[in-house]
Amino acid sequence: MVALETAVIREGETSGQNQQRLELAALSAPAVLFTIGMIAFPVVYTVWLSFQSFSSTGKQSFVAFGNYAKLISDNEFWHGLWVTLALYLLSLLLQLVLGVWLALALFQAERLSGIVRSLFISPFMMPPVVAGMMWLVILDPSLGAANYILTSIGLPSSDWLASPTWVIPTIALIDTWQWAPYVALIVLGGLQSLPPSVYEAAQIDGASPFKTLQRITLPLLLPTIVTATILRSVDLLRFFDIIYITTQGGPGNASNTLNIYGFRAGFEFFNIGYASALMLTLTTIVFGAVLAFNRLRGAVAW
Amino acid sequence: MATRSIVAGFTLCVIAAGGVVSAAHGADFDWQKFHGKTVTFLANNNPVSQALLTHKADFEKLTGITLKVDTYQEQQMRQRLVTVMNAHSDEADVFMTLPSREGAQFAAAGWYEDLTPMTKNEVAPDYDYAGLSRALLTAATYSGKLTSMPMNIEGPVLYYRTDIFKKCGVDQPKSIADIETAAKKIKACDPSITPFVSRGLKPALPYTFSNFLHNMGGSYMVDGKSALCTPKGKAALDTYSRLLRDYGPPGVVNYSFPQISALYRAGRAAMDFEASNELRTVMEGGERLQDTALIPLPPGDGGQVPTAIGWGIAISAYSKQPEAAWYFVQWATSPTVQKMMAVQGIAPPRSSLANDPDYRKWIDEEPVRKQWQAALDVLAAKGASEVGYPIVANPESREFIGQAVQDLILKQKTVDQACADADKALNTLIAQK
Amino acid sequence: MTSMPVSDAVLRRLNTLQLALAGIIIMAPVAWMVLSSFKPSFEVTAYPPSLIFSPTAENYGELIKTTPFFSYAVNSLIVTVGSAGIGLIFGIPAAFAVSWTRISWPAILTLAARMAPGTLFLLPWYVMFRQVGLIGSYTALILSHAVITLPIVIWVLLPSFDNIPRSVFEAAQVDGCSVTRILWRIALPLVGSGVAVAAILAFVFSWNYFLFALVLSNGDTKTLIAAAFNFVGEGSTQWGVLMAAATLIALPPLVLATLVQRWLVAGLTLGAVKG
Question: Do B14 and B112 sit in the same domain of this protein?
């Protein structure tokens, strides 16, 4: 029966295949054309700008790869790259560990009440601007609630965003507060899709819960974790909003990520050419990371 | 010496000269000339624009021009301005600008319309161009072009708590060294009070630091070279950063006016070195009204050279209707409007208003306003507009000044290292053309 | 190493405990923000922070009195609904086609725009929209925000479409249905909850985005989030008002998310497995 049906479809396809292909192309055409229409000009324009120098006297001149050469010899660029990577790795690690941990806890809970779900959704539904303002008030070293809580339970207070040592961990914590629940929900999806038979087998073998987690659950979850990694990487490598609201790259240049540096070069110091070169470099880094992780996902798929 | 003295202060009134220049063309001046036009104004959301815009309806009624206002906080405003100007857009006819920060840069980029002809040919009889602060006008003039009209005069002043000073047996500081002595005493006498607070945020602190540098006899540039490593430069870096580090609030490196004013207003700081414009903010709620005194930064080895700057209002070079735009600029900087703004706490850049009866009445209402006015008189008479390096890339120069101070507050470098690193970066910046 | 046998009940209780702890940590800052917005204006920066105070709506009153809060909210609503709409109209067929053909580059292309820093687009878009006289228009804002909503719609819907058994489409084809007809008549009704999730997420992320509106809007079309910075400025220390603004701005996304939390979680988790 099935074979017969398939054969019929095949025949139908050969006659209407072009028609169908055309239709499918037409379905994705609006999205594709819209995207190209919106991003082609900015990309080309930015590439062109990155070959220009806007000197402080306001004159614009073609400098070819001059801005890129300047980039390589610019200590602040390398520092920015370092800050970007440090913030990225720290945030990602925190979010993955806490996210997986939360997901396992959620998975254990027999059913999720609406309240729990709403709780977990709220942080990443919140506008980053609002989250930034909220934390800015809470973390203010002299006026905020965070230090009050710390000191009243006998812990030392912290300068949080005002400390060059702690600013990156603090920003990472803010971002983790916002996005670890998101990672948790994604990983929860992965957990729910794992075949129950695997666990049953492990139980029969008498494996301890920890061993089951280490040997079976985590490896099987790897593709989901990589997915979460990709999604977070895209945002974390371009880290902007929270820093823009809270520290503007400071204190000193301790939180001067590439994205913030590029923004400041262009809009605070009016060097649009150099800023364009910075932003394109950052885009390339993000793109490269996504491609690399995509490969990785292929490798860990099961 | 790149310092520009603000000579035409309130005290040196030249009212007699007022009106002479404009009288020639005043007779046929018609406020309704551009009736029906629409002028757009890109404003920075600060007390100056807030006060000005409360009178928006007056302007529209007087001229028949529709005023479209687009207000942003300073940073977003600059972001938008850079975009608009780089696209050569006529979208903003009029915008607010800080000549002391970006004047040279915007002038070099050709973003300002030259206002000189308009101030000569298109002025109302009562405009009193000559009454505007000569020094602020000079500070806004680049290669003979007048780029913006002064909206106000302001500068950092020292707010301090008389009750705490009394309790701790401290007298009004007579010198910069006295500030530190006072801070030390207050710290010992009442540990719950922050003895001294001022700006520690990197791009914001040159505004307050410059006053320390100048009072202590330092200068940013000597013979075309950055001079932070001179003995006077080092002393200023050392003093300013030590005050904030040892007597400032925790996390002061992120402090600019919002945090500073909040802290002082809440009664948690004894001394606050902030913009004169913040008077209204720190008096909000009235709690500080009776226990606050206000003076210019006391002298150091170099005497008293207060920082005095002002916001300017400029016409975009890409505006398609600079004449109509000028009518707004003229109205906004006219004696009538500046008088109305003055009683809202915006110090006018006009000497003639100092003796205006309404303004005097407002000043006399509160003792602290009298002191505020007295401090502004000093600013106007002796002030320098140099905040950061007198070079085209002034905004970027502020980064390196801020960095040096922050390195010291955070104890990341010695004074010698910090000033040497800053000088090196700044000399590179100065050499860039 | 043998572990002590622990009863299931104890384990479950421990688990509930750690979830409760997580819940508290997640909610505490938000609760603090909302609480602060009801404090008398200057008590927000009082130290030690006060937990007991007589709640007041004065901050909200001040906000509404001194800013055109509601007209900004209406602007936000127009831009958000418009961009979510474009995202859905362009995204649904695209997701379907990608799912059907397994050719994924169109989906990746739409995502590419999200890999560049947002600031990269500011000046070029300003130049571009100025050429056609659209600066300050809702159109420019909606189009720019659609760049954010489109990939969300596509990537949320992809796994939903993938989940529909192929045989359903094949049966329809036998009946002579065209691909387009299959999409609208058969596939779309099957992914209803996916569409709802996509729409909500598109709405929320468009509502939350501030950078583009900063340069593409004008005083009349400024979105709430872009105006948010203005609620605190030089000349005021009213942090209470700021917290009131923050609370009101965050309200629509949070309410929406709560309303559809069940689907949202299902949609997100599904997307992850297939995505």
Answer: yes
Considering the domain architecture, whether residues B210 and B240 belong to the same structural domain is answered as yes
- Cβ atoms within 10 Å, residue A212: 17
pLDDT at B129: 92
CA-based nearest residue in chain B for residue C123: B83
Note whether B187 and B273 are same-domain residues: yes
Q: Residues of B with CB below 8 A from C220's CB? A: 68
- B323 and B297 part of one domain: no
Measured in whole angstroms, how far is the alpha carbon of residue C60 from the centre of its chain?
24
Residue of chain B minimizing CA distance to A251: B253
- Asked if the peptide bond before residue A123 counts as cis, ω within 30 degrees of 0, the response is no
- Full-model pTM: 0.84
CATH class of A67-300: mainly alpha
Q: Where are the domains of chain A?
A: 67-300
Is A192 in Cβ contact with C119 (below 8 Å)? Answer: no
Match 């819940």 to its residue by tokens: C23
Q: Do A189 and C271 touch (CB under 8 A)?
A: yes
- What is the model's pLDDT at position A3? 43
Please give the mean pLDDT across all residues of chain C.
84
CB contact under 8 A, C94 and A122: no
Cα–Cα dist C267/C193, whole Å: 8
Residue B14 lies in a domain: yes
pLDDT tens digit string along B374-433? Answer: 999 999 888 888 899 988 888 889 999 999 999 999 999 999 999 999 999 999 999 886
> Bigger pLDDT: A111 or A190?
A190
A147-157 pLDDT per residue, tens: 888 888 888 88
Query: CB distance from C117 to chain B under 8 Å?
Result: no
Q: Is A171 on the interface with B (CB under 8 A)?
A: no
Residues 39-78, chain C: which have Cβ within 8 Å of B? 41-42, 45-47
| Cα–Cα separations (whole angstroms), residue B182 to B173, C194, C245 | 7, 67, 40
DSSP C186: I
Which parts of chain B have pLDDT scores under 70? 1-27, 433
Rounded Cα distance between B152 and B349, Å, is 5
Helix (H) or strand (E) holding B43: strand B38-44
Which residue range(s) make up the domain with B110?
5-153+308-369
Structure-token match 């997420």, residue found: C201
**Dihedral Cα C123, C126, C131, C135, nearest 10 deg:** -170
pLDDT for res B1: 38
Cα C206 from Cα B190, distance rounded (Å): 50
Residue C234: DSSP 8-state: T
Chain C residues within an 8 Å CB radius of A132: none
Q: Please tell me if residue A250 touches chain B, with a CB cutoff of 8 Å.
A: yes
One domain for residues B47 and B34: yes
What pLDDT score was predicted for residue B344?
87
In a domain, B130, yes or no: yes
| Better-predicted residue by pLDDT, C72 or C228 | C72
Backbone angles phi, psi at B126, to 5 degrees: -95, 15
What gap in Å lies between CA A146 and CA A129, rounded to an integer? 19
Q: Is residue B384, in this structure, part of any structural domain at all? A: no
C15 and chain B in contact, CB less than 8 A: no
Asked if A241 and A37 count as a contact pair (C-beta separation under 8 A), the reply is: no
Same domain, B197 and B269: yes
Chain A from 45 to 74: CB within 8 A of any B CB: 55-58
CB contact under 8 A, A141 and B262: no
Q: Is residue B374 part of a domain?
A: no
What are the C-alpha distances in Å from B77 to residues B44, B70, C266? 6, 9, 42
The CATH number of the domain holding residue B338 is: 3.40.190.10
Distances (CA, A) of B377 to B9, B277, B348: 6, 14, 11
Residues linked to residue B69 through DSSP beta bridges, in sequence order: B41
Residues facing residue B41 across a β-bridge: B69, B94
- How many domains does the structure of chain B reveal? 2
